[in-house]
Write a structure and sequence with these properties.
By secondary structure, the protein is mostly helical. 66% of the residues lie in helices and 2% in strands. The protein has one domain. The mean pLDDT is 85.
């Protein structure tokens, strides 16, 4: 590899990690605006035009606040937990394709951090690390509310991750690969008998998409599944004892996880960066594909925001019953359905 190739590899990996946190600033402003619209109130409109500087002002405030550590806390684990949360959130995006491979000055540039053959397994493995940061935060704080939040989170993520991975197994079965670029590749084009209908996985696997997307709310600890925080019961849950930018780290990780979950939904069920009948070429084609991917991802991010300010929080027993008695059986039915479709396709 030449020096230029090494620079391209570094930029492919580093740029998404730098850009994702920058997206959180406008995303917080959008969430506040959407919440205000739903609740029929103005929302942030004082700091800067249209309140656009409210989020930077809050970040500045977090940097200036005192970073406190409880006297009875396990200091090492207490300080490690938020860093692990941000690491897990940022690392997940590395294998998600956000565009096709483009040619620039004789160099092929895949629009993905790392196109590995076990991309989907990597996503679920790194996603599983996020629960460790929450459990560590709850236990190391030596606070009963934080500990209860950590225990809730571990039970919740284990329950819903099983349904989520079972739903995603249907996509793997249809694509015959764990590589996310292959999964996007098999969704390009349209059906022969129905040329107006894209070959996205959401069409034959609508139940799988439903299970995956609902589970994503539980995985990201967003309403109506934010039981690990549950302000009315647990003060602030697992991050009760955190302050300043360590609290901000959990805030940052949550929004990055929302973006990643939306990007994964787009990749697995809505064709990723592709559109029916569109074949990208060159830099312009790559830019258009990137915009398509961003638009699809932004739509699901807005759904996350809309649901948060529309639905009430589940009770904990309702949360667990939904995961084990509704979503997991539905994911298994979807897997059997996909297996039947594949057998029919192979033997027709």
């Amino acid at each position: 590899m030449t020096a230029v190739d090494w620079v391209i590899v570094v930029l492919r990996v580093v740029l998404p990690a730098l850009i994702l946190p920058a997206f959180v600033i406008p995303l917080v402003w959008i969430e506040r605006r959407v919440a205000a619209f739903i609740q029929d109130r103005p929302g942030p409109n004082r700091v800067g035009p249209f309140g656009l500087l409210q989020s930077p002002a809050d970040i500045l405030k977090l940097f200036m606040k005192e970073d406190t550590v409880p006297a009875s806390a396990d200091k090492l684990l207490f300080l490690l937990a938020p860093a692990l949360a941000v690491f897990a959130a940022l690392s997940t995006f590395a294998v998600i394709p956000y565009g096709p491979t483009i040619e620039v000055a004789g160099h092929s540039i895949p629009m993905i951090g790392a196109d590995i053959s076990i991309g989907l397994l990597y996503v679920f493995a790194i996603t599983g690390l996020s629960v460790y940061s929450i459990v560590l935060a709850g236990w190391s704080s030596n606070d009963k509310f934080a500990l209860m939040g950590g225990i809730r989170s571990s039970a919740q993520i284990i329950s819903y991750e099983l349904a989520m991975t079972t739903a995603a197994a249907g996509v793997v079965l249809a694509a015959g690969s764990f590589r996310l670029t292959d999964i996007i590749g098999m969704q390009q084009g349209a059906y022969h008998l129905l040329p107006f209908l894209p070959r996205w996985n959401v069409v034959p696997q609508c139940f799988g998409f439903l299970v995956f997307f609902i589970s994503a709310f539980a995985e990201t600890n967003r309403l109506p599944f934010d039981l690990p925080e549950a302000e009315a019961e647990l003060v602030a849950g697992y991050h009760t004892e955190y302050s300043a930018m360590r609290f901000g780290s959990y805030f940052l990780a949550e929004y990055i996880n929302v973006i990643v979950a939306s990007a994964m939904t787009t990749t697995l069920y809505f064709g990723g960066w592709s559109l029916p009948g569109y074949h990208p070429h060159g830099i312009l084609g790559g830019a258009v594909s990137l915009c398509v991917f961003a638009a699809k991802t932004a739509f699901f991010v807005l759904v996350f925001i809309w649901v948060r300010w529309t639905l009430p929080r589940f009770r904990y027993d309702q949360l667990m019953k939904l995961g084990w008695k509704a979503l997991l059986p539905l994911a298994l039915v979807n897997l059997l359905w996909v297996a039947g479709l594949e057998m029919y396709r192979l033997h027709r």
